């Protein structure tokens, strides 16, 4: 992968014949207690020193990813719009900065249905974020969860189930990665002999969870499964020399994984 553009809210890459753009929706500060040690024990004063804090809180970037095949654009996740913290909701600015016309986004696919991934379907003023949207893919196990979100009611009938192995486009394949949520899904993007894995919320705190993949997150729906899935996907990416793209890795959230003696290491691209 080669970086081809960058700005405060976006970074563009070339992968084979595709353009992949990391879009920064913003960030959210979370309390340290959200991290969980084995045995579901929260961190306190024992938080490792390499983890940066901002006024005592963990800062998580919030990233979405656009995949452009030259004809249409598939958007993976949409950020939070104005549904959560005011430090988020900058996806429209990121798209404009990257010179991505929203009318070219015909497919939106979700890694899962937590609010910081789905509410960008609607702009803060209530208008549709993607006027030409023709496919809205939601992991099958979370379809009812999505259809229970009242604010997104206009999209309930449009949403379609997404299954592992399904291809939203010729270059994108859905990969099962449950644990953080019941239907949590990664997307394997391939072109020109290169692979990028867009992995959603596999890692929340990169300064800790690569070295200690056994550490989980309070909002992981199934702590044990989330831990096992993280270990499996990290090994898969490292052993196959795939690039990865994470929703909560420090923006732009794209890089490579390598093994260490005790865990893994993330190297930004």
TrEMBL record:
Gene3D superfamilies reported in the protein's UniProt record: Ribonuclease Z/Hydroxyacylglutathione hydrolase-like
GO molecular function terms listed in the Swiss-Prot or TrEMBL record: hydrolase activity; metal ion binding
UniProt keywords, alphabetically: Hydrolase, Metal-binding, Zinc
PANTHER family reported for this sequence: QUORUM-QUENCHING LACTONASE YTNP-RELATED, QUORUM-QUENCHING LACTONASE YTNP-RELATED-RELATED
Entries under InterPro entries matching the protein: MBL_superfamily_lactonases, Metallo-B-lactamas, RibonucZ/Hydroxyglut_hydro
Pfam families registered for this protein in UniProt: Lactamase_B
Family according to the record: Belongs to the metallo-beta-lactamase superfamily.
Domain spans labelled Metallo-beta-lactamase: 61-248
Regions annotated as coiled coil: none
Protein name: MBL fold metallo-hydrolase
């Amino acid at each position: 992968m080669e970086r081809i553009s960058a700005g405060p809210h976006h970074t563009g890459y070339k992968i084979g014949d595709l353009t992949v753009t990391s879009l920064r929706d913003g960030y959210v500060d979370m309390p340290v207690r959200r991290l969980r040690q084995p045995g579901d024990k929260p961190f306190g004063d024992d938080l490792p020193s390499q983890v940066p804090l901002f006024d005592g809180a963990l800062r998580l970037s919030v990233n979405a990813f656009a995949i452009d095949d030259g004809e249409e654009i598939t958007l993976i996740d949409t950020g939070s719009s104005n549904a959560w913290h005011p430090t988020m909701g900058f996806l429209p600015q990121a798209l404009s900065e990257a010179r991505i016309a929203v009318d070219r986004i015909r497919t939106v696919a979700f890694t899962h249905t937590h609010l910081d991934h789905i509410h960008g379907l609607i702009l803060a003023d209530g208008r549709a974020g993607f006027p030409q949207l023709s496919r809205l893919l939601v992991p099958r196990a979370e379809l009812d969860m999505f259809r229970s979100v009242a604010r997104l009611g206009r999209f309930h009938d449009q949403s379609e189930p997404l299954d592992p192995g399904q291809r939203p486009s010729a270059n994108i394949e859905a990969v099962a990665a449950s644990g953080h949520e019941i239907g949590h899904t990664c997307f394997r993007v391939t072109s020109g002999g290169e692979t990028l894995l867009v992995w959603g919320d596999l890692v929340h705190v990169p300064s800790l969870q690569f070295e200690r993949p056994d550490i989980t997150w309070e909002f992981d729906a199934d702590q044990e499964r989330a831990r096992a899935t993280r270990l499996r996907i990290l090994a898969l990416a490292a052993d196959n020399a795939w690039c990865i793209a994470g929703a909560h890795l420090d923006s732009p959230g794209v890089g490579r994984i390598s093994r260490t003696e005790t865990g893994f290491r993330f190297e930004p691209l």
